[in-house]
């Protein structure tokens, strides 16, 4: 199977996670951010991730891919219950976190920005929806304080370092990609249980954190 992704994309991380958790082989193909032709050819629109199955057919939507792969062997891993408190936490943080993350993503050395045109495409699209990056960067100190405070609240909710609720569930598929994205930001204060969970999930899923690119 082939998985078409962007390295920075949290939705792509969700799809990558299930392959890592089940130790299944998959060929990762990083699309250029300005390449509209390839995803359109595969699924009719520009999006990521896209799974190309062994029969050649293509499937979009991260959680559809997760459920498909998790059930291939009829022994699904994601059996645990979800916690509404985790979902509330994610909803709150997702309300502001892109203002902190996107300007950094636009400057980082991701493979989907291999050409100046691909990077410019991303910058222009995101600034059109989020606002001028230079303005957003002025708010970064306050946003870093906000997320550090919110991570302290999350710390109380983590049951085990290898599964946020004690048993692998969809909450892990939504939480780890956000925590991975946050490793791109210098200056965040990571409480111990959150840091242990973040690092353990990176090992379990075989997905690199972004600390080496942090700014």
Automatic annotation (TrEMBL):
SUPFAM superfamilies named among the record's database cross-references: GST C-terminal domain-like, Thioredoxin-like
GST N-terminal domain location: 1-77
Pfam families in UniProt: Glutaredoxin2_C, GST_N_3
Signal peptide: none
InterPro entries according to UniProt: GLR_AS, Glutaredoxin2_C, Glutathione-S-Trfase_C_sf, Glutathione_S-Trfase, Glutathione_S-Trfase_N, Grx2, Thioredoxin-like_sf
Species per Swiss-Prot/TrEMBL record: Pantoea eucrina
Name this protein carries in UniProt: Glutaredoxin 2
Xref: PROSITE patterns: GLUTAREDOXIN_1, GST_NTER
Any coiled-coil regions, as ranges: none
């Amino acid at each position: 199977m082939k998985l078409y992704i962007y390295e920075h994309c949290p939705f792509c991380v969700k799809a990558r996670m299930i392959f890592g958790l089940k130790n299944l082989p998959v060929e990762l193909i990083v699309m250029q951010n300005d390449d509209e032709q390839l995803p359109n050819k595969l699924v009719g629109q520009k999006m990521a991730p896209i799974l190309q199955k062994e029969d050649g057919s293509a499937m979009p939507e991260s959680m559809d891919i997760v459920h498909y792969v998790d059930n291939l062997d009829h022994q699904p891993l994601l059996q645990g219950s979800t916690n509404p408190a985790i979902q509330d936490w994610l909803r709150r943080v997702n309300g502001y976190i892109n203002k902190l993350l996107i300007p950094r993503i636009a400057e980082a050395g991701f493979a989907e920005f291999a050409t100046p045109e691909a990077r410019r495409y991303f910058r222009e699209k995101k600034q059109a929806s989020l606002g001028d990056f230079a303005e957003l960067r002025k708010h970064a100190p306050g946003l870093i304080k906000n997320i550090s405070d919110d991570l302290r609240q999350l710390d109380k909710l983590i049951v085990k370092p290898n599964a946020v609720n004690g048993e692998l569930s969809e909450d892990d598929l939504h939480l780890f990609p956000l925590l991975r994205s946050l490793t791109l930001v210098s200056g965040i204060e990571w409480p111990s249980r959150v840091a242990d969970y973040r690092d353990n999930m990176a090992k379990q899923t075989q997905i690199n954190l972004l600390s080496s690119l942090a700014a």
